[in-house]
Structures are given as structure tokens and as C-alpha cells.
Design a protein that fits this description.
The complex is a heterodimer. By secondary structure, chain A is an alpha/beta fold. Chain A is built from 5 helices and 11 strands. Chain A has 2 domains: 2-93, Translation factors (Elongation Factor Tu (Ef-tu), domain 3, Beta Barrel), CATH 2.40.30.10; 107-233, 3-Layer(aba) Sandwich (Rossmann fold). Chain A is 21% helix and 33% strand. The longest helix of chain A is centred in the C-terminal third of the chain and has 14 residues, at 208-221. Chain B has one domain (42-192): Sulfite Oxidase, Chain A, domain 2 (Alpha-Beta Complex). Chain B is built from 2 helices and 11 strands.
Amino acid sequence: MARLAAVRDETPTARTLVLDVPDWPGHLAGQHVDVRLTAADGYSTQRSFSIASAPSGDGQVELTVQRVAGGEVSPYLADVFAVDDPVELRGPVGGWFVWRPEDPSPVVLVAGGSGIVPLMAMIRTRAGVGSRVPFRLVYSVRAPEDVIYADELRRRTRDDRGLDVAYVYSRQTPEGWPRPPGRIGLATLAEHGWPPDFAPACFVCGPTAFVETAADILVAQGHEPRRIKTERFGPTGPVASGG
Amino acid sequence: MGIVTPGFTGRPRPSDTRLPPGQYLTEDFPVLSAGPTPRIPLDDWRFTVTTELGGRREWSWAEFRALGDEAPTVDIHCVTKWSKLETTWRGVPVEAMLEDIESAADYALVHSYGGYTTNLPLEDLLGGQAWIVHEYDGAPLAPEHGGPARLLVPHLYFWKSAKWVRGIQLLLEDEPGFWETAGYHDYGDPWREQRYQGD
């Protein structure tokens, strides 16, 4: 069982939930939890959410929930779920889409929208353990106001030469941005990722169409398909690994 | 019943008995896989059954397509909680492909293009419970859904229905596959909610 300790609004549609989870066993960056909600009449439903925080050792876990219009669970978690409310949580789950600090390979992270969440856990974990492994993040959003963790990413790239962040704006760019809005393409990943010669570990997370496109580009660039780990979510809400 | 989540009401519930515990209905068809989508030209496609005795049987695409198709309509259940009812497929029953093969195996390890594997007891592939399908909803199976051909084992969680299949390895001992070594349940019965190790 978990209890909501605090909330942070990240964007107009995304909210971070800070949960107190007694006996939390710790987790790896990229893993997720299953959240189970139960109504007063006994009806219950479950969804998976990526963990946003680095392992902290203080029994707290952060999830960032993107409100999906018409969704059954995300509007509840983002709007109704209140501090001190209890919720059933299971996890951590997933042993594939994870970054382990002992892996010395350079890392390229490719995020589409709220696909940033498990990748942010990797960025935070890297900083938390003092890793010098070079990370590059390519983060695609519709518009500037959709950037989750914008201030934190700005601060981290300023203070840390091992972390680069490049943005792709698909619908609307910031004022004065040198390029028109557009989808992620070969040129972006060639410029802001790592060349295949460096054998980076690639993590791609976002909506299905985005992940298909980005993973295809990485393969076309010459990255070994087995070095490209993907996590996709559909219109029914964020989900993680599975069949 | 679990602890009540304050203020949570949920959607109006369809009391559909075809829905296993912890699952919700979806109308679309989410794509879930661990890596990039492999593209396999039909000329290069092969399907191979190997046995614990070293036996081997291989089909080209043309040979596979010449086998007798069935057209199952089944409900599918993904471990990530969505279920989709009455999905329609076309493909070859696995039993027909194993018919002439001599083996004392009790287990199968299914292999896919791209390196994915999944394991299941051999008997779960027999008796009209499993197909190698090449068509979904009246059209050739799209690459992101496992085309040119995927396994369909609808009575188990859908990760067992391996996409981009290239063969079945028959084994005397159970050997865990990709998700089964990454924390997921070895068998994966949705009606017993066998999602993760320990369920």
C-alpha cells in the first residue's frame, strides 16, 4: 500500500505524484509499477505507470501521470487523488527496459511526450550515483508548454557536461526557434544521438507511432537492433513491457 | 476486495464474463514489443521445428501457406491489462505442423526474428489452442503486430503469442524465454492472473 505524500504539477496536463511506500525494495531506472484503484462497490482496475524518480532509499517513489482525456484512471490520479489518500501499488516490475549504472556504454534516450518519464528516471539515477557515462536525450514534444521536467533538465544540462538534451517540436516551436515544427527524423538523431560505432545503449519511449519511427531510424542508422530497447504506450494510457 | 481508493468511481462496468480478473476492454489494438520491428522479406522467411533428438523440419513461406488454414475468432488478453474480444485471425494450427514430428518433449521454446523467445508447455500448443497466423481482421498481418506470421495462443497472456515467429524448439525441460527471465510468470494464465513471477 502507498499513500500520496505530495503532488507537483509539471505541465498543464501532467502531474507528479510523490508516494510514500513503506518497505519499498528499491528499483532500477526504467521500471514501472502497477497501480490498482478500487471503487466503493468493489470494482477495481489496474494500470501500469513508469517510475520517474531515482531509487532514493527513503521509501518514496514518484510517478508522473499524463492526463488522458476520457481515460478511466489518469484523470482520477491527476485531478482527484489527494494528499494522504491511500492506493494499492505493486512493483517494481520489468527487467528489460532498464538502465544499470554499471553499464559503461554511452546512452541515447529518445522520448516522445510523456515517454520522457522512465528516461528521466535514468537521467536522475545517473546523477544520483555520480556516473560519468555520457547521456544524450532527444525529446520530442508537441509544443514548448508540453515539456515535462523543463526546469530540471535545463539545470542538469547546465551543471553536467555529460548530459545533452535536444528538443524536437512537432506542432509549435518556441519563439525564435531556428527550425519549423516537424516530426523526429534521421537528421535529428544523427546530429544529437551517438554514432553506431560507439555502440550506445538506446532507449526509446513514447506513443506507438513515435516509437516505431524512432526505432526504425536508429536501425537505419546502423544501430544493432538488440541495443535498441523500446517501450510503447497507446491511447489507453501508459503501459510498459508485455506481449 | 482491496482498499477503497477515495473518490474513485471508475467507468460504468460492463459485466462481461469474458473478461479475466484485472483486465479492461479496449477497442483498439495496442502495440507492445521490446525493440524495433523487424522486417522479414517473404522470400527469406523460414519456419523451423527442431526436436530434442536433433530432428529438424523447415517450411518456406510458400510451403507454410500451402498448409490448411483455420480462421479462429478469439479473445486476447495482454499482461498490461487490456483485453480485446472476438479478434479474427487466419493461420495454421500448430498441431498440424507438429503432426509428423517425432519427439518426447513436454516443453516448447518459441523463437522469433529479432531474438525474442517465449516458453510454454507443449500441450498448450496442441488441441486446437494455438496457431501460426498470417492474417488479422481480414488483412495480412502488419509488421508491428508480428507479420509476416506470429504465434497465437489466446488462452495465455498475449506475450506468449510471439510476433515474427521463426521456429519452435521442442525440449524435455522447461527453458524460460525473454519476458519469463525478466520477471514475468512462467505460464501466464490470465484467468488465474499469473502476471509476474510469484503469482
